[in-house]
Write a structure and sequence with these properties.
mainly alpha, 2 domains, two-stranded antiparallel sheet, 2 strands, globular, Sel1-like, Mitotic_Regulator, TPR-like_helical_dom_sf, HCP-like protein
Amino acid sequence: MRSTNLSTTSTLNSGTGKGTLSTTSNSGAAGKRTSAPNQTAQSEAEKFLTLGISHHESGDLSRSAFYFERSAKIEGGCVVGMCMWGMALREGWGVRKDQKRGFEWISRAASRAGDLMATSNGKTRNEAELKAIRSELKLSVYELGKCFCYGWGVKQDRQMALEYFELAAKLGDADAQAEAGALLAAGKGCKKDLKKAAMYYRMAEAQGYDTVGLSWIHKDKYDPVSVGKTKGGR
């Protein structure tokens, strides 16, 4: 049998319900330990996720929320479905706003993604499957970081937020890299560290993140690579 992994990238503006969601479908051979019932359930969850994204993009937030909830719950749900249902609850996208429940679902998504990543060790997975798992993990961890950063459904804890942002940043999430940079630059939830903040901002910039007004991140004292190049050119 074959399974389909949906990796979702969110470019939604928090609180507005506007923006775009893109899905990439990656097919790969199912692991030997995966049973047929689980494959079917996961496939159904992903179908509902795709429908939810489609309705969200068309502006039908009520139907979008309905499908995100189904994707999160049917036969255990799927990671991105859980995360999107949590975000819908947190932001009030087509459903009564409930930030506490939203946080709980995003937490479940991050926990499930972490488990999938952990159990990948020692298992034979193709690159597409591993990429999908990493994508699911960085999405859910980043959104969890936002909950802690802004106190959405949980007590505000910027130290915890930074930990989640840094984890997502290391997985390659540009928004998480920028969020980590902002906290480090301001010394919120941590000791102020402009050198490390600049590093994260440059990582985000390399992926297309707008760093207008942040020219300081390229100053020699914050960019050891730049210093090395300057010395090498002398």
